[in-house]
Amino acid sequence: MGYYYTTSPENAVPGKSCATPKTHTPDPPVKERGARFYSPELSRWLSRDPIEEQGGLNLYGFVKNHSTYAIDVLGLGANDTPTASCPCKNESDGSPWVGDRGIDMFLICQWIKIPIPGRSGDTSKTISFWFCYYSNGNGDARPGGPCRALFKCSQKCKSTFLGTECKPPWTVRWGEDYLYGHVTGIPGSYECEIDPSQKAQKAQQCRQEASGKCGE
Fold first, then answer.
1. Which residues contact 12 (CB under 8 A, 6 or more apart)?
2. Are 184 and 191 in contact (CB under 8 A)?
3. CA distances from 183 to 103, 116, 146, 172, 194 (A)
4. Where are the chain's structural domains?
5. Residue 163 in 3-state DSSP?
6. Which residues, listed in sequence order, are joined to residue 191 by a DSSP beta bridge?
7. What is the pLDDT of residue 68?
8. How many CB atoms lie within 10 A of CB 148?
9. DSSP for 24-79?
10. Three-state DSSP class for 3?
11. Which secondary-structure segment (H or E) carries 197?
12. Residues sharing a CB contact under 8 Å with residue 151, sequence separation 6 or more, in sequence order
């Protein structure tokens, strides 16, 4: 005694498949599928689809070639409604990329002098040092000087069922990091040109971390 899969849903096992195992005699010449018979030897239906082109141009097809997700209870058409055992499929839509560049930040350095009061009020002695900080104001930036911008990894996602969207596409973002470069442009309109090697390294990180971001 063996088993075959029928489209009858009475004993469907959630999470396993969208079909139901039933007993049958070993190696039958044909298998009954409700409205049609299927030949394992020929690997095809023995008759045309009873609903003809309403089920698609392939009159010998079965549930739009999605037997893992769809069921055909009466052999008359695919059940196109997602269920607990046949859910929508989340997956990535294209490759991840380095996007969402933040505001350019320029390294500004100032020479600071602080007077050191003496015992008699003498302030001729001072302590001096460079004070550097990043600022989005480019008035004091210098061409060729250091700068940085914030970047994130981005991945576009989609959710489909039998090729049909279950909901609008969305984008997942993660992994904020500053990428560094040098100042280019003219006074008043400086830009931060990011080092290509840093962008390549960030892109590799995005690809390595993208798995599962869409909820696959």
1. 18, 19, 20, 71, 85
2. yes
3. 13, 36, 6, 30, 9
4. 1-87, 92-106+136-209
5. coil
6. 184
7. 65
8. 19
9. E-SS-S-EE-SSSEEETTTTEESS--TTGGGG-S-TT-SGGG-TTT---SSSS---
10. strand
11. helix 196-209
12. 98, 99, 100, 101, 102, 176, 177, 178, 179, 199, 202
- Would you state the torsion angle of the CA atoms of residues 38, 40, 42, 47, taken in this order, to the nearest 10 degrees? 0
Nearest CA among 112, 101, 111, 108 for reference residue 138: 108
Please state the pTM of the whole predicted model.
0.53
Cα 202 to its chain centre, rounded Å, is 16
> Could you tell me the mean pLDDT of each successive run of 10 residues in the chain, 216 residues long?
41 43 58 75 76 69 66 60 71 87 84 78 76 80 88 93 82 92 86 89 93 90
Q: Give me 97's structure tokens.
A: 């990329």
| Residue type at position 25 | T
